[in-house]
Amino acid sequence: MASNSSFHAPSRHGFVRVAAATPVVHIADPAANAEEHARLIRQAGEKGVDLLVFPELSLSAYAIDDLHLQAALLDEVERQIARLAAVADEASVIAVIGAPIRNGDALFNCAVVLGGGEVLGVVPKTYLPNYREYYEKRWFAPAASRSEDAVVLNGERVDFAPGLIFEATNRPGFVFAVEVCEDFWAPLPPSTRAALAGARILCNLSASNIVIGKADERALLCASQSARTLSAYVFAASGWGESTTDLAWDGQATIHELGARLAEGERFAMHSHLTVADVDVDRIGLDRLRNGTFADCARIEGEAATVVPFEAGEGPADALIRPLDRFPFVPDDAARLDQDCFEAFNIQVQGLMRRMTATGSKTLVIGVSGGLDSTQALLVACRAFDRLELPRTGILAFTMPGFATSEGTKSNAWKLMTALGVTGAEIDIRPAAEQMLRDIGHAFANGEPVHDITFENVQAGLRTDYLFRLANQNHGFVLGTGDLSELALGWCTYGVGDHMSHYNVNGGVAKTLIQHLIRWVAERGLVGEAATPTLHAILATEISPELVPAGADGAIQSTQSIVGPYALNDFFLFYISRFGFKPSKVAFLAHQAWGDAATGRWPVGLPQGERVAYDLPTIKGWLRKFLIRFFQTSQFKRSAVPNGPKVVTGGSLSPRGDWRAPSDSSARVWLDELDANTPES
Ligand SMILES: Nc1ncnc2c1ncn2[C@@H]1O[C@H](COP(=O)(O)OP(=O)(O)OC[C@H]2O[C@@H]([n+]3cccc(C(=O)O)c3)[C@H](O)[C@@H]2O)[C@@H](O)[C@H]1O
Ligand SMILES: Nc1ncnc2c1ncn2[C@@H]1O[C@H](COP(=O)(O)OP(=O)(O)OP(=O)(O)O)[C@@H](O)[C@H]1O
Ligand SMILES: NC(=O)CC[C@H](N)C(=O)O
């Protein structure tokens, strides 16, 4: 079968749809259990599921003690396996079911992998729990005691070994392995080696009885195993119907990827159900590629594994099923956003405090425009001075109106400086700018309305010039304000301009996070209450460099109408710099996240007016511009940035940090990929 060819199909972009099944259990009744299995397999097929994982011993039930040794039961299990292989094939699903399987003179607790109408392989459990409430060694033999790596099932000889790797021949990266319950409680789970051998999705068939606190323990193991092995982890535990003779069962079902939970099923349910999520096997592959430790570990600890090829179905063609933040730097979960703001602000403050103590500085110099970035840098400075027990009067804040500075931003700058108790001053840069424009023979000096790049940069440059000389004069250093998003776009004036400072606390913070940080600091009164109304006024001001005067219609120079919405630019930046995704995949994800304003969650506090939608042509258009700016025209600015701390996981763009690139490269390969693989609508 060919891969799904539509741009809008998740499978086209490296997603594999996986599901954990929670069937109602029928004790020691394989035919009834197979009936539940068949229903869930068909349901999964209708939902476009590629890989479906059932609980441990799902065909027989788990807690049946000595009934595992009854020949009638074991024969029936084998017959039902053949039946379910046909059902899975019709549904175009790879189903992994749990079954007791005889091999030689021993019984094994196994995962049986069904695909293409046959048994693809059988994986026996490696670690059999035989402590506390578990007695598995009374019935089962561990994987290591098998006499050969094959078993005959319904007359067919199939692979029989722990650590089998199942690899789709037609869907790159769809590679999985399975282990059984206790296996991942071992210090070295078999799935660790399977991941090192190439498996990107790890499945656990479990019958883990529930006691207080155990659900958290299992979730912790799933999260940590997926984080440590750079993989996805699908966990399916037995639920309603298992024997409660001595134990109880909650049917926990979770899907994790790279440490994060993608989906969680209903626990203690009394009906059969599926927990579904789209796993990004492409992202897993790219993360392993960047993280050399994974490959190093595979070389040291890896073992040769048997690879079982299979042909997968076409995969999901409908909307993506996984959590997707519209703002990768601003979580839509309120508690997480709070935590992120706490960490970001403290990282910024800590960076600055260390530099102040290292240089013995008692003064800082900063240009305050009344815009977001300089406000955030000023808040960081206040907090750093408070924590170092230095008087805030040592913060020398200058507002420097130019040809396009509005009354609103200037007045906000003054209110802010006053409310924060820093030393405020004003320097009108216009006379010096006129002089410079005259000296270089610029038409503006003759009264012509020429507002070109030179006109803009003369102002940005003079402000920087003043700040640096004021720093010399006052024995302090210049605090930078430019943010991560501006660095990505090259939206700053190079060298003698806002690009340069002695230390920049904002260089690691994306613009979309800065507004939340300002709100967070204001709400907590971290720099005092007096500034709160002004902070809210600044948050409500449109983002503008204010370098070009407003037009005759009064329209101000709007940054986002020139470079594109920061919401989209930050989305592009995160996926391109953190994971190296192809532009067409970034466009697909942006469309999934931003295509419909009515669906999904928004970050707490985001103004109603910013809760908008973007269609695919708009996304593609701005992505094109982003690719040109990011890959072709702005790297030379990033190659020479001031010092400052890395803040977000999406990367710092410092050449000494997370992003190294040539300053003279071309964006062609990214533009071609975008155009070749992204439709206009
Ligand atoms: N690869 C490369 N290696 C070495 N030099 C390179 C280069 N590419 C261009 N250049 C040179 O660099 C110069 C262009 O860079 P640059 O002087 O920075 O100027 P440029 O990037 O053309 O303009 C600065 C832009 O940033 C905006 N801005 C400025 C200040 C603040 C804000 C804000 O809102 O935050 C926005 C402003 O509106 C303007 O659009 C040219 O002289 C060009 O020849
Ligand atoms: N009128 C001004 N007075 C003093 N400093 C200024 C002024 N305009 C710009 N600057 C300095 O140049 C930096 C870059 O200007 P820019 O307009 O990009 O930043 P901003 O206004 O702080 O934030 P944002 O870009 O989010 O609006 C400012 O952060 C500030 O340090
Ligand atoms: N079935 C099993 O392997 C259960 C053992 C597992 N350690 C548990 O606590 O649930």
Outline the structure in words.
- With 681 residues, the protein is an alpha/beta fold.
- The protein folds into two domains: 15-310, Carbon-nitrogen hydrolase (Nitrilase/N-carbamoyl-D-aminoacid amidohydrolase), CATH 3.60.110.10; 334-677, Rossmann fold.
- The chain is built from 20 helices and 20 strands.
- A seven-stranded mixed β-sheet has the order 13-12-11-10-9-8-15, with helices on one face. Strands 5-4-3-2-1-14 form a six-stranded mixed β-sheet.
- Helix 10 (430-439) packs across helix 11 (453-474) and helix 16 (566-579) crosses helix 18 (616-633).
- The longest helix has 26 residues, at 334-359.
- It starts with 14 loop residues before the first strand and ends with a helix.
- The mean pLDDT is 97.
Notable traits:
2 domains, binds nicotinic acid adenine dinucleotide, binds glutamine, binds adenosine-5'-triphosphate, Rossmann fold, Nitrilase/N-carbamoyl-D-aminoacid amidohydrolase, single chain, 681 residues
Please name the CATH topology of the largest domain. Rossmann fold
Shape: elongated
Q: State the separation between the terminal residues, measured CA to CA.
A: 26 Å
Helix content: 25-40%
Q: Which homologous superfamily in CATH is the superfamily of the largest domain? A: HUPs
Ligands (ions, cofactors included):
nicotinic acid adenine dinucleotide, adenosine-5'-triphosphate, glutamine
Query: Pairing-aware structural class of the strands and helices?
Result: alpha/beta
Can you name the CATH architecture of the largest domain?
Answer: 3-Layer(aba) Sandwich
- What is the gyration radius calculated from CA atoms? 30 Å
β-strand percent reads 15-25%
CATH C-level class of the largest domain:
Alpha Beta
Give average pLDDT, whole number. 97
Main sheet record: 7 strands, mixed
Number of helices: 20
Number of domains: 2
Strands side by side in the biggest sheet: 13-12-11-10-9-8-15
In terms of per-residue confidence, which ranges show pLDDT below 50 for 5 or more consecutive residues? none
Binding site for ATP: 367-374, 481
Active site: 56 (proton acceptor), 125 (for glutaminase activity), 181 (nucleophile)
Catalytic activity: deamido-NAD(+) + L-glutamine + ATP + H2O = L-glutamate + AMP + diphosphate + NAD(+) + H(+)
Protein name: Glutamine-dependent NAD(+) synthetase
